[in-house]
Structures are given as structure tokens and as C-alpha cells.
Prior knowledge:
The complex is a heterodimer of chains A (621) and B (335). By secondary structure, chain A is of the alpha/beta class. Chain A folds into 3 domains: 4-233, Pyruvate-ferredoxin Oxidoreductase, domain 3 (3-Layer(aba) Sandwich); 245-431, 3-Layer(aba) Sandwich (Rossmann fold); 516-620, Rossmann fold, CATH 3.40.50. Helix content of chain A is 35%, strand content 22%. The longest helix of chain A is centred in the middle third of the chain and has 20 residues, at 205-224. Chain A is globular and about 85 Å long. The N and C termini of chain A lie far apart (53 Å). Mean pLDDT of chain A is 95; it is low at 1-9. With 335 residues, chain B is of the alpha/beta class. Chain B has a domain at 9-218: Rossmann fold (3-Layer(aba) Sandwich), CATH 3.40.50.970. Chain B has 11 helices and 12 strands. Chain B has an 8-stranded mixed β-sheet with strand order 2-1-3-4-6-5-11-7, with helices on both faces. In chain B, helix 1 (26-36) crosses helix 6 and helix 3 packs across helix 4. The longest helix of chain B has 15 residues, at 302-316. The mean pLDDT of chain B is 96. The interface between A and B is large, with 72 and 60 residues. Strand 17 of chain A pairs parallel with strand 2 (66-69) of chain B, so a sheet runs across the interface.
Amino acid sequence: MISNEDNNNQHFARENHxxxxxxxxxxxxxxDGMQLTGTQxxxxxxxxxxxxxxxxxxxxxxxxxxxxxYGVSGFxxxxxxxxxxxxxxxLDLLVAMNPAGLxxxxxxxxxxxxxxxxxxxxxxxxxxxxxxENNPLEDDSLSNYRVIKADITALTRESLKxxxxxxxxITRSKNMFTLGMVYFMYNRSLEHSESYLNKKFKSKPIIAxxxxxxxxxxxxxxxxxxxxxxxxxxxxxKMEAGTYRVVMGNxxxxxxxxxxxxxxxxxxxxxxxxxxxxxxxxxxxxxxxxFGTKTFQAEDEIAxxxxxxxxxxxxxxxxxxxxGPGLALKGEAIGLAMIAELPLVIVDVQRGGPSTGxxxxxxxxxxxxxxxGRNGESPVIIIAASTPxxxxxxxxxxxxxxxxxMTPVILLTDGFIANGSAPWKIKSVKDLPEIKNKLVPNxxxxxxxxxxxxxxxxxxxxxxxxxxxxxxxxxxxxxxxxGCVNQGPENHxxxxxxxxxxxxxxxxxxxxxxxxxAQEGDLLVVGWGGTFGNIxxxxxxxxxxxxxxxxxxxxxxxxxxxxxxxxxSKYKKIVVCELNLGQLVQIFRSQFGGFKxxxxxxxxxxxxxxxxxxxxxxxxx
Amino acid sequence: MENNVxxxxxxxxxxxxxxxxxxxxxxxxxxxMQKALPEMGVKKEDVVFVSGIGCSSRFPYxxxxxxxxxxxxxxxxxxxxxxxxxxxxxxWVMTGDGDAMAIGGNHFIHLLRRNIDIKIVLFNxxxxxxxxxxxxxxxxxxQKTKSSPYGNTQxxxxxxxxxxxAQARFYARVAGNEPKAMTDIFIQxxxxxxxxxxxxxxNCVIFNDGCFxxxxxKDVKEDMQLFIEHGKPMIFGKEKNxxxxxxxxxxxxxxxxxxxxxxxxxxxxxxxxxxxxxHQMLIRLQxxxxxxxxxxxxxxxxxxxEHQLTENIKxxxxxTSVDDLFFAGETYDVK
Lengths: 621, 335
């Protein structure tokens, strides 16, 4: 094991600075392993006890042409000894594996910060592809930064030449060399990455050895490098006591459903069709069949949801996962689940739209589709997760609401929190709230499918295999008691009203909306879903500076919390921030006509930055 | 699913008034199903009928069993979910030519390919009935319908051919006016483990009346239909003297007693042959119309494969609660 305590043989002065937070971005070709490098760094930081937030940002192409500007794949991480709620606006360190990476990311580097480049990649061909007329390493265009020029490719090759590996395998290890350098710069141990590499390449020990050697060589190289004039210490953060692990939003979503199934005493069934950025939920659930989890990769989005509806009819906790275009395809079937009044969770990991849009980028533009994208009067419960870690609790909550209220629930996440990772204080199943499913027990003599309970208006759930309770349901309008077909005018109106009332009453079972920072004052900043971290950071900064500013992030959208209007009334101004052209604000305007809402919108496939938010908010106060 | 209770057909009739047009073959299918179910040895509470949209898709309402009337074309998806969630159930998809092969074509072929133990009854009347008379994917070339007043210009699917192309292991065809044969085929389908497709040549008395009469009318059916059974020679005709032989790569109709042809020259039906070539030839034959169980081959079902995988993984895992997963691996404590 290597640690910086071994550094006493260095023969030049190096400053070791203590800092609260640092923001690093790794960029390179989409085949350079930047996602892996970034994940390794952030996991190591989290295991050390830092708070962490990550932002993978990659192109839609799997292996875009090498060196191209549009093929740059990036991974950003902010880690800190203080609370970290965003991946950060400006970079303290940019690691650029090629000219295209440097060119497309330089704008984000703080003046005076460090840039590590692989000089071997700054050849004529790559410079041309990146549309550089002059080599930026040779003119003064980077004079505002501390540039560490390292022959990373050549050094990696040299260090691995005796292993008898082919050139390609050797060159592929250069990301680990780079990671080693960055570990040195931030006083990190190699332990986690070494054990990760040993595990990942268990069946190819030579590849594990090469990667570990590259990692160590990079670390030692940085240690002897005079250009690395400063290293940094970021102490562990003060976090709530408990056992933690780092989770990606999509994995947390999958785990939330597994926990809900266990809590409800049901098998989990996922019907799904692969779609970016939702597929990782399928990838995760498919691993866990020993818990009774069943996954079904269907032939299309429609079969994904209809199989889930079938599984729900047969008594499973049924879910389907998708992203925007898939939600459109599922619309008719959501209506079926809604009129059949079956429990079902539809996860929409939102991405840039419309149509195929920006498949790998984030956006919040499916809210109105979730709200209204069906024929007929077809309300469903809509909730949204707001951080990678709380994807777990909102997946659990979506399941609980679906099962207890016997209705479909749409859970909205987005590419930003789904792919982002953060420390999660592990929740044990025994500490989660009870889920009381509506299953009709064996031995019940009489069953009328659409008789409802009083408080929730939920019907009960008799499943095939239960003797004596045979019944038929479906998409035709049903009799309000028996569930048999009844298309009578009064019955239809009654059913339309009661289904709407059922969703409205969910408001009695969800928590109030609470603001953080100023509880009343000049400005209420409203967000929903995955924008939490950035808005929180912006409002915190302004509140700390004395502004009377509060922040409310909505997780429950349909129905809205009962105290929503109350909260709005406590502030002089309200600004609703969304990564769309203004969708939640439309819902607010239709439900709370007495308030004036201003909007702050961004539709670039990117999350908000703290600085653009604070700038806008200052203009409003 | 094993059952000791003795049911009669009345036990499977629901209290709902049947609303098909008078004279529709759908009544025959309904009665055949109600008669077949007591013979299948399944418990009533384990039977689920799933349908899409169309005349035939009203079927579940008329059965006293569990039923789900879904959306257009999507019954295979719903049924797959039901069966995978609870493999103990006897799951039936009731569908039509438009529901299964137009709007639901994708789900239809994938259900057959996967071989989930679901029984599909395909009511093929070569027309859209519930939308009042447009051509369907099985309407004949040139057929005049409300949406093809000058004649249909689209090549029809042959349902069995499409199904076998999609890896169907069990395919049977039966005329809509043959309740006994239908009952028997339903019972065989239930006993078979795997996706079973039963195509019913169903007359639509309103929009496509007589579409199959040249094969199914009492007066002509013996001469025009060849009802095949596994292990028996392919003989048909009022006189039981016509049969099929293979001449090169073509089926040929011969007369027993003519040109030195005897019964032993006639092809014997082999429904369990894996190679679908001859099954496809029988399906495509325009005269005689071949009915009966044409293909019935052994294979593992999708859910059996899934179950095997699950048991294998379970045997290697000592996780009993998701907590075991959450707290395993790279966790760290904050004090």
C-alpha cells in the first residue's frame, strides 16, 4: 500500500493544502475509460469519508470517432469535508486525455487551477480533429492555468513493456496511470482501486497486474514530478452516523423496489424494454432473482408495461421502467392499469426530448406527459426523486402508494440523478414503513371487485388462484360495484369522478412540503425532482449571505401536498426553476391562480449550475 | 393446478349475457371451451382468460373464471405477465386476426418464440368485425370490404405459416362449426406444455359471411377438409379414398384404388417432427384445407428455463433479505 507519508524523500518543496471541497473532471475519448476512472476516484473519496456528488456526461455514441469533439466523454466529481450537493460548477482540476477533451472543457476550469494533459495525444492528427490551429500546449493560451504536461501514453507503455501484453491492452491502462497521478495529488490511498481491479479482472490476472502497475507508476510519477507543486487534503465530512455506501441513482431505484417487495410480502416483477438512461435499473434487478425478483425483457415498451399489468393482476409488485419516448408508447397501457385500478409503478428516467432528442443528457420535460399523456380522464399519482440516494426511498414510496391506493404511480427521475452517485446511508428493511397491500385473503366468500375502502377509495385485490373470487376486469367502463361492464351514463360519470377523487385523496397520506432556509421572506425558490442539489447549493449560499430566501423542492407532484398554497403565501416572490420550458409552473398556475409565479428555465441537456441560479435569484430580490 | 372437483360446463358460464351476433361461430367456441374445461383437470380458480380488443376479445366476460379484457393487440403481454408471476395458472389468450396479427403482431410472434405455457385461441374470420367490416391481415387479395371497396391489395398472412416462422411448437387449426373437434383440441392444448396456437376458422355472419363455407359446409366438408391426427394416414373424402402423398417437394392428392395407390402409400401425419417443412406444406395447402393438430413438438418452456436459472442462483446465494445485499460489499461507517 502506498501513502503520501512515504513522501519524505522528495527533494523539492511541495505544499500540502487543506481544502474543503474539490471539483475534478476527467475527459477523453468515449473509449478511454473516463467513466471508470471517475467512478474509481469518487468511490475512493466516499470510502475515505468525504461527501461526494458525481456527474457522468457522455456522448450518445458508444465509440465515437477517436479524437472528435463530439466524442468526448467526461466524468465530474465534487468531494468535500463539508456537505456536497452538486458535482460543482467550476473545476479545480481538469484531466484531459486528448485535445478534443481540453477544447470542449477548458471553459469550466477555474483560473489558476490545474490541468493535467497527456502530451502524447497532442499530435497533429488529434489537434486537427479538435480544430486547434496551434498546439495549445505550445502557445500561451493556457497561461492562466497550472498545466501539468505528462507523456502519459508513453510512460504507461514504458512501465508495462515487460508484461508481454499487446499494444492495445497496454495503452488502455493509461487511464489508471492518470488516476494514480490524481490520487497522489489528493493524498488518496490506492487500496480501493487495487482491490477493485483484482476483482474486475479476476479471470485475467495479467490485465489486473497491468492496470495496478500503471496506477502505481502514475502515483510515483506524480510524486517525483516537480510540476506537481501542490497536493491537497480534503478531510472526511461530518455526516450523520451510520453505515454508508456509494450508490448510483438507478441502482438505488432498483433497490427501493426490492425493499418494497420484501416489505409488502410480494414478489417483484419488472417488465421492461432497454432504453437509455433507464436500462441500468433492469441491469441491476436482473441480478437478484434469488429474492423472488422476476425480470422480463420484453419485445417493446408496450409489452414491457402490459406484462407488468398482467403480473400485477396476478399479485406481484409490478413495475416497468423507461424514458420519455417509452413513456409515450406506454400511455394507453397506463390508462388500462388506471381504469382497472391495479397497482403498478412506471419509472420514467427523463432525458432530453422531444422524440429521440438527447438520449444521454438530462431534462425534466416529461412532467406534463406524465400528468396528461393519456386518453380520457386518467389521473395517476406522480412523484419524483431528487437525489441519487433518495431514488431508493421514492421507489419504495411509489410502490407503497401503488399497493395501498390500488392505482398506477409514475416515478420521475432523470439522467442526472440516475447516473450520478452519492453516499447513501443504508436503510434496513426493518426500519422502513409498513406496506399494507390490498390482497383479499383465501377463504373470503364474496368478492365485488370495485367496492372501495373509505379513506383511500382503494378497491381490494383478488388474484387468480384464489377459490371462489373469479371475476373479470378490463379496459371497458366497469360497474361501480361488481366490475362487470357497465357503460351507463351515470355509472360512467360516477366512476370518472371517483377515480379522480381517489388520486386527490392521496394528499391525505403524503407529507407536507417544507421549505429550507428562510421560512418566509423575499423569495421562494421552487424546484422539483433532480434539480435539488444545485438549487439547494445556490439558495444555501445566498441564505448564508443574509438573503431572505427559501427553497422548496417538490417530490410529490400529483397530488401536490395540501399545504402548498400556505407555503407560497409566505413569500413575496416565487420562482419556479425547471429543466424544461415551464411545466410544473403550468400545473401551479392551474391550481393556485392567486399567486404570481416567475420562471427560470434551462433546456440544454445539462443540470443547473449554482452560479447561474444565484445570479438569477439576486436579480429577483 | 391438479383438481379433484368434478365440474360441468355450467360451472364455467358467467352471469353475463352473451352479446355476439346471432349465428356467430364465437358461440361455438364459447360452448366448446366450457365443455373442455371440466375435462382438463384444472381448478376453476386457476384459469385465466386474457383478451385484447375485437369481437372475440369479449370472450373472458362470458366465462366464470378469472378474466382480463386488455387493450388492442396486447393480450400476449398481459398473459405473459400473469403466467410468469404465477406459473401455476392455466392462461388463455383469446384473440382475433386483427388483434393478433395486425396491431398485436409483434407480441404474437414473440410469445410464440419464447414458448411461455400460454394457450392462444385465434378467431380468424378474415375481417374486422367490431369496427364494422374493414379488411384484416388475413383478408384475401381482392376481397371487397368497407375499406377496400375495389378489392384488397394487400397480401394476407397465413396464420399457421407465420406462427411456425415465429418458432411455434404447437399449432392446430379447426373449423368454427366443429364443436367436438374444437373441444378435443382445447383439451390437448391444455395438456401440452408450451405456447399453443389454435386457429379457429370462424365465420362472421355480418361482414364476411361464408368466408369458409367451401371447406366447412356440412355437404362439402368431408371432401374439402382433411382432418389430421398424429400417427394416422392423411385420408379424406366422403368415400375416405383420397389422400396426400409427397411428390418431390410438393404434396399431391391421390385416390386410393387408382394408379396402384393403396392406403399404405398415403403420408402418415407426424405432429412431433421437429423439422417444420411438411407442417408448413400442410398449412399452405389450399385444397384440401388441413385441420387438426398439425404441429406439437417437445421443448422446454420459457418459465422452466427461468426457474432453473433461479434455482441455480438461489443455491449459490445465502441472502435471505435484501438487507444482506445492502450491507454487503463496500460499505463504510460514519461515527
